[in-house]
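Assess this:
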Amino acid sequence: MLVSVLTVTWNSVKHIADQINSVQEAAEGVEYEQLIADNASKDGTITVVRQKFPNLFFLSFGENKGFGFANNELAKNAKGKYLLLLNPDMKLERGSLARLVAWADDHPRAGVIGCTLLNSNGEFNKKTAPRRFPRLLDQLLILSKLPHVFPFLVGRYMMSDIDHEVDQRVDAVQGSLMLVRRELYEKLGRLFDPRYFIWFEDVDLCREAAARGFEVWYTPVVRAVDLGGRSFQRRSFLWKQKNFIVSLFRYFQKWGIWQS
């Protein structure tokens, strides 16, 4: 098996069928499998997946234990040389998996690879671009909401200077579309650190990769439409703030406040 596509759903009924169909088109000529885990959806997501795609590997959890937990459970059952983490509101281009795998094969030290993410209008989405490793000041500014008015305050962290048309090594890429080499997964014994429920698990994985001698890369060789966390938008502001702060604390507790 060349590629295992791992998708975690939570109330994703409006998008999951389109995503699965786009994966089928993207995988032309590639031996692949798609594995899906549902984190206790209540909107019919489970029914859609089971009825429309009965041949897919599917896990359904009675409670939501987080993005990282669900991906780790899927990875235990994956057989691919590469693990492609793909959110349920993503749409891949036809034939794109072959290009992505060929690129990864040409870069054997790349443990984690991210691609160009576009918004629904087909424009480069700066909010989902690669980022530099977070510093405490960056995150305090984000919590203050000042960057909504003065975005330059977090320009370094958000890589506002990125040339998204060029292959380049980066600190971290988004977990919404992330190709992980099996060798990295096997060295870690899991995908994501289980201490994170949501937020920072993807940057933590990129940091783990770098610490083990792997490289993290961004490439525009593949583009995908990212509809932008539609399910996640259902969460309240207070829930998001609480979970962001908890994960932020755990990240700096693990890596140190002064790391950058």
